[in-house]
Amino acid sequence: MDMSAQQPIVIFTAPSGAGKTSIVRYLLERVPQLCFSISAATRQARKGEVNGKDYYFMPMSEFQHYIQENAFAEWEMVYEGKYYGTLRRELERIWTAGKVPVLDIDVKGAIHVQQQYPQHTFSVFVKPPSVAELRNRLESRGSETPESLETRLSKAEYELSFQDHFTTIVVNQSLSQACAEALVKVTAFLHAFYPQI
Predict the structure, then answer these.
(1) d(CA 180, CA 197)
(2) Residue 46: how many CB atoms within 10 A of its CB?
(3) Cα(36)–Cα(100) distance, rounded to whole angstroms?
(4) pLDDT tens digit sequence for 53-109
(5) Is residue 197 a part of any domain in this protein?
(6) Which three-class secondary structure state does DSSP give residue 87?
(7) What is the structure's pLDDT at 4?
(8) Beta 100-104 vs 9-13: how paired, if at all?
(9) What is d(CA 78, CA 43) in angstroms, rounded to the nearest whole number?
(10) Lower CB count within 10 Å: N or C terminus of the chain?
(11) Largest interatomic CA distance in the chain
(12) Domain tally for the chain?
């Protein structure tokens, strides 16, 4: 039996640096029904990242094997040579535990997941107040070269053109306000599945 037909999914997507990961962390701390969906990635783990907690880190050959097996709900080459994806078995793991998967994924991946699980997907596009503000945020991280910064910003402008493909938009002008708004919207969606919320 295909569990996915009746199961809810919450997706957060945004251009890089818009703050979606901070909002997802906020929700995970406050809504016990939610469970973080761990993405697969071909990149190396960064300092402090744990395999099986932050990502499923895997070599390219393993990732490509999963692509051939149709094991991904979505996958993308997000940056040159760096692949990310959501394994179907990860969604099944969370549903089997009686929880709702929360996906923190890029825009194209989010559109693919919505297309595959259209019945009960609630998607949130986190929008920066402006591209100029996004530039400031990315620069303040200190992790970008001038080239990678321009790549991320041009990608962000492209991704912003898809904002109307999602259930709702949260503008992250102030992180605390954006978190509060996301909490209200996600809780309202989950109420249909968990009336006690």
Answers:
(1) 16
(2) 9
(3) 8
(4) 999 999 999 999 999 999 999 999 877 788 999 999 999 999 999 999 999 999 999
(5) no
(6) strand
(7) 58
(8) parallel
(9) 11
(10) N
(11) 50
(12) 1
Domain extent at residue 122: 3-190
> What DSSP letter does each residue of 98-128 carry, written as one string?
T-EEEEE--HHHHHHHHHHS-SSEEEEEEE-
Residue 196 inside a domain? The answer is: no
Token pair recorded at residue 83: 């692949």
| Cα separation values, 24 from 71, 146, 172, Å | 24, 28, 13
Q: Are 78 and 13 in contact (CB under 8 A)?
A: no
**Residue type present at position 106:** D
**Residue 59 structure tokens:** 């070599």
User: Is 84 part of a structural domain of the chain?
Assistant: yes
Placement of tokens 């909002």 in the chain: 23
Buried b / exposed e across 63-92, counting CB within 10 Å, b at 16+? beebeeeebbbbbbebeeeebbbbbbebbb
> What is the per-residue pLDDT for 2?
54
CA atoms within 13 A on the CB side of 20: 22
Q: What is the CATH number of the domain that holds 87?
A: 3.40.50.300
Task: Answer yes or no: are the C-beta atoms of 35 and 101 closer than 8 Å.
Answer: yes
